[in-house]
Design goal:
With about 425 residues, the chain is an alpha/beta fold. It contains 18 helices and 14 strands.
Amino acid sequence: MRTLIVGTGYVGLVTGACFSEMGIPTTCIDINEEKINNLKKGILPIYEPGLEAIVEKNYKAGRLDFNTSLKDCLSDAEVIFTAVGTPPDEDGSADLHYVLEVAKTVGQNMTDYKLVVTKSTVPVGTAKLVRQTIQEELDKRGLNITFDVASNPEFLKEGDAVNDFMKPDRVVVGVESKKAEEIMSRLYRPFLLNNFRVIFMDIASAEMTKYAANAMLATRISFMNDIANLCERVGANVNMVRKGIGSDTRIGSKFLYAGCGYGGSCFPKDVKALIKIGEKVGYKMKIISAVEEVNDNQKLVMFNKLNNYFKGDLEGKTIAIWGLSFKPETDDMREAPSLQVIPKLLQAGCKVKAYDPIAMKEGKRIIGDKITYCKDIYDAANEADALLVITEWKEFRMPTWEILKKIMHQPIIFDGRNIYDPKEVKAEGFYYEGIGF
């Protein structure tokens, strides 16, 4: 069973590589010729732990291939996964242009049965549009060829995506025929031999499951940030509150960490899209709208703390930034809090020095030469008037405080991820502020 993955971004490349790792012949397709040529050379467009080794191994073994033409590869494949981007339109709704282009190409070139599976995050009802698009192209050709559509949303964590795919806690699949269900069961069986758990449902429910899952996680984050902001005003400690409520089995402890806001390619985009889905059917998503508002405000909490400390006089101050990516173990800076904080610092007249273990190249691409990019944490902190910790990379967790205090112009730390013990840092002679206490 040869599988095609259309789109070699984060989801598509991880999906293709992991299928091939399980012995499934897979071809990843992308219209970007430079990206395809680089992949054949082992040069990946994204950073994801463990992915490069899997891609290189399976490409050399012939189980994984790369191509720029869906049309040329279509005849050999039974299953086509759509993993192209669905960026938000100006109004926040998901742009389905690329998804429907894939469907159109399939309809124009298929000669036998195909199962077209949408892995891109798409609004409820997209599968109907995909089916309609394929059928319209078949009608134009005067052909009566059977095909199926399905929904198979991804639930990958950036920074741990390979492990998530290889050992999934669940695989959600929306189908509308027994044949499609059998094909998808066969495709995922190698991943779930020890705990075979593919959850089959109708397509609309599968499409909604992805949005609902991300919206729930985003809600927990914004909820705790809202609580953290209240804790600061009433003298409570959000870390203690988190332990207190997280021990309740009905709540659990995951995604209850206060910080300086969520970012990435999924949560912000999917929250916006879910709000728009509601608007289109005349229903206001009140909770989700509040989640978005809280997060937008939270991304500036670090700047506001810094600005308050210096009483609005930031002109000429040198500020160190530790962390550019939206989370550790990725170079993804989409919707990252750093992209909100840095412009505010520059606008206030600050000199910004930044360091990130992985995302420096991406930072230079997005921000340009407006800031100074440093070789390590101490280079960034050297002669700084204050340090802002934006991303909780492991190498930030235990700096040598003696060195840091010596090289900083002023020993001031604003910890946006609560990774330090306030008592320890203050005992070392630093002014310290975290989130929620």
